[in-house]
Amino acid sequence: MTKILTTTIIGLLITSMTLGSTGFAIPAIADVQTPDAHKDNSHVKHVLLISVDGLHQSGLDWYVSNHPNSELAKLVQGGAEFTNAHTSDPSDSDPGGTALMTGGDSRATGVYYNVEYNHNTYEAGTTSCHGPAGGDVVYDSPDDINDTRLDAGQNIPGLDSNPALVMDMTGTPQTLLVPSTFPVDPVTCQPIPPHSYLKVNTMFEVAKAAGLLTAWSDKHPVYESFNGPSGHGIDDFFAPEIDSNAVEPNGVPYPGGISWTGSNAATKQYDGYKVQAVLNEIDGYDHSGKNKVGVPAIFGMNFQTVSTAEAVIERPEICSVKCSLTNLADFQTVPIVQASATDTAGNYFDQISTDKPITMLDNSYRTMASPTPIVDPGTFSVNWLRSN
C-alpha cells in the first residue's frame, strides 16, 4: 500500500461487506496527515475504493491499535473515519457489492441476492414466454463459460501452468458469460444480463457519463452488473473467477482440488492478482500493465482474504483415501473437519460421520445427516482434511 500513499493525490475509500456486521469506510487524502471533517477535498482527482469481505469495525480498530505504523493505520489516522455505516440487508458479497456501488438497498436496486426468486421473470432457458411468470434468478459463477478456469473460459494459453497469466484476462468479462443462464424478460422473452437487472445507476456509470476513466477488480465476471444499466460504466473490469480450480504459482493444483476460497493461502494468492491490477492502474496502465490509459478517476478492488481467514479451518494434513463402509468408524475416531465423499455410482456426499457436520470442499454447500444412501456398498473415495 506504500505505493498508493506516494502516488499523486488519491482519495482512498475502504469499506467492508460482511454477513451481519457493521461496515466502515475511510476516505483519506494522501497528503493530509490530520483528520478534519471540514477539509476541502476538491483537489482530489482519483478515488481508490477497497472493499474487504469479512472485515468488521472491531477488526479494524484492533488492527490499527496493534499496528499503529501500518499503512492501514496511516490511512485511518490521516483520513476521516466514520463508523455509522452498515451493510445491506440481506448482507453478503452481493447485494453488498451492489449497495456499495449504488448507495441503494435491495428494495431500490432490485438485487436481493446472487440467487433469488423473482415473480416477474421467467426461468433461464425459457423461449416461450406465455403463462404466469416467476422463476429463479442466478447471477453467479455458473453463468461463466467455464467456471473451473481462473479466466472464466477465456482460455488464455499457458494459464493452467502459470496462473499469473490471468493478468491477460479481458477487461470486458461480460463477454465470458453465457446468456442462456440468465433469467428471461417476460416482455421481450430475452435473457436479462446482470447490468440490465439492476434498477438504478452506479457510481461508475455516473463517472463515465462525466467523461471520467473507471476501473474495478472483483471475484466474478457476473459482477459486470456494476457497469450499471447502460452496461458501459466500467472501462476496465478485471474479474478472475474465484470459484475456479485453485492452482499454486508453479502450476500445481492446491491439495483437495479446492477453489480459491478453499484455503487462505490460495485466497491470498488470488487477491494478489487484483492488487497487481490496481498497482498497474495507479501507474496509469490498464489492469494488465501493458496498455497506457491513464489513472482512473474511480477504481479499486475487493479483498476476499479476511473472509476466508475467518471461515476456512486450516489443518496441516490433506489426504485422499479409499475406504469401505465397514471402515466408517475409523473416520469417527479422528478429528476430521472437512470431507467430501463420492461412491462408485458418482453420488456426492458432504458428511461421512453421522455425529458431526462436515463442509464440502467443492463449494456446493449441501448438508446431509449421513452418507446414506450409498448406491454401491463397496468402496468410495473420500477427500478429507484432518487435524493432528
Oligomeric state of this protein: single chain
What would you report as the Rg, rounded to the nearest angstrom?
A: 22 Å
Q: Write down the secondary-structure element order.
A: HEEEEHHEHHEEHHEEHEHEHEEE
N-to-C CA distance: 37 Å
Quantity of strands, as a count: 14
Beta-strand proportion: 15-25%
Structural class: alpha/beta
Share of helical residues: 10-25%
Shape: globular
Low-confidence regions: 1-11, 16-35, 315-388
- Structurally, the number of domains stands at 2
Number of helices: 10
Short description:
This protein has helices at residues 2-6, 57-66, 71-78, 93-102, 106-109, 194-197, 203-209, 264-282, 305-311, 328-331; strands at 11-17, 22-25, 28-29, 47-53, 82-86, 115-118, 135-138, 215-217, 236-238, 298-303, 317-324, 336-343, 348-349, 379-386. With 388 residues, it is of the alpha/beta class. The protein has two domains: 2-105 and 195-311, no CATH class; 317-386, no CATH class.
Describe the protein's architecture and organization.
This protein is α/β, with parallel strands linked by helices. It contains ten helices and 14 strands. Strand 12 and strand 13 form a beta hairpin. The longest helix is centred in the last third of the chain and has 19 residues. The chain is globular.
